[in-house]
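Sanity check

After download, print the first record. It should look like this:
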Amino acid sequence: MKKLILALVLASSFVFPMSVRAQEQVCTTVYGGGTVCGAHTPIETDLGDINPLLLGFGFLTISSILYFYSVKKSLKMKEVNNK
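Expected structure tokens:
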């Protein structure tokens, strides 16, 4: 049932994609000059300032903690089932 729901959600995202539209016109004022229209300004993103090495190390640390926790949990479950 979970696979069916996941497949339906993924299929609906391909069938009904959302469109993204840019702004019609961007006007900026230059100091000491006039107004310039049509120039695009960069959009700040959250992940732009994060060092990729630091981000990878964080994901590696989190995944190793989850791995060791799951191994510990599975060993504990085997002990309970063997008694």
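If your output differs, re-run the checksum step. Summary of this record's structure: The longest strand covers residues 27-29.
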